[in-house]
Amino acid sequence: MAKKAKRTIQYRRKRENKTNYKKRLALLKSKKLRLVIRIFNKNTTMQLIEYRPSGDEVVSCASSKELEKKYGWKISKASLSAAYLVGLMVGKKAKGKEAIVDSGLVSMLPGSRIYAAVKGAIDAGLKVPCDKEVFPKEERINGKHISDYAKLLKSNEEKYKKQFSLCLKNNIKPEEFEKYFKETKEKILKD
Length: 191
What we know:
There is one protein chain. This protein is α+β, with helices and mostly antiparallel strands and 191 residues long. It has one domain: Nucleotidyltransferase, domain 5 (2-Layer Sandwich), CATH 3.30.420. Helices cover 46% and strands 13% of the residues. It has a 4-stranded mixed β-sheet, sandwiched between helices. The longest helix has 14 residues. It starts with 11 loop residues before the first helix and ends with a helix.
């Protein structure tokens, strides 16, 4: 009589492409805190998580929604600058601790929002092993490119209003984006 081959059913989260268990196990073996970074279309969320046998425990967290409510950030909450500021908030809450980056299933590209968030956490005092070459340039984090582009578009009123509608709606001049970023950063560091 023929026997059927045994079939192993994968974990539900693996089947749904929500968890890479091989990567998660490697992160847990390090016995360090995990800096979990999740970037969505309209929000950036960061958590510092400690493994416990009974379940993961969140040590500290921050999101760009908190950035808006607490510090008055009225521009895009999913931008490179917002990711940096969220990282700054998490790093300030967990100053002096050591963590490793957990990006989930997202591939980590040099100069991306994930690395901007990591740079913010490092600048606030969180210890994260990371190569400095992968961070976005300082002028990109500060929003200098946005200010320069706004100055360039100023002559074309229609394009200017369409491109910077969120800034103009909130009474923020896009040409002064760097100044707005620095003011928000100072608020976070003083708090």
